[in-house]
Amino acid sequence: MATKKISKKTLTKSFHHWYYGHLTCFSQEHMQTFGYLTSMLPIVEELYDTKEEQARSMHTYTAFFNTEPQLGTLVVGITAGLEEARANGAEAVNDETINGLRAGLMGPVAGIGDSLVVGTLIPVILGISMGLSNGGSPIGAIFYILVWNLLAYFGMRFAYFKGYELGDKAVEFLVGEQGQAIRKSVGIVGGMVIGAVAATWVPIKTAFQLTNPGEKEPYLVLQDKLDGVYPGLLTAVFIVFCWWLMAKKNLSPIKVMLILVVIAFLGVLAGFFNPGLQY
Question: Which residue windows are transmembrane per the record (predicted)?
Fold first, then answer.
């Protein structure tokens, strides 16, 4: 029997299915399962001739799957290589092997991907974009759209084909000590980036002052006192407060934003915040 080999055209088609459709029919029950199925469909159709074989192979990928989608492309590429090996009669590759690998990689890949992509890369690009948007310029938005999509597309494409090339050799790297070290270091860098972006683009200051009767100059400017103790203290307090609401109280971002609106409204009424509006 001739050795079956997935064509580059089919691999590219599979990658595009994942790139555009990894959140296909997304739900809390299935997450990215259907996106995974659509990405594996071209692979299975090329490797197997009969509908029965194709159905049996596709059934493997009906198991639950969810991870960070950009770096998670690596997992799809790995399973494409494993499916090719199974089609060529590799006895060690079966449903249990493939799903065990997928389940084992979901967590580590999500940990690295969330820290690297969501926690570091996106805030950096957003920070640059906001700087370019000063004065209402549309350049910042255009910059973000172009840079993010180019990085996401070519980065995911590289991950897919590298996963296909490495196969199960990538597993040891992702779940071993090196992978743990990467997740930890990227998490630290991501935290620093989030802190820097927050300090730069979320300037929260108080307008609270105390003035003696008959005098023009205030004897107490609360913001100056706070800056003398800890510059950006109110910003740090609000950022930690938002984190606490979402991480500890499990509030959605929309509810957190509504709470911030209420705090801002009451703060302006009480004279603690100055919106800087002029009429």
Answer: 109-129, 141-160, 186-208, 228-247, 254-273
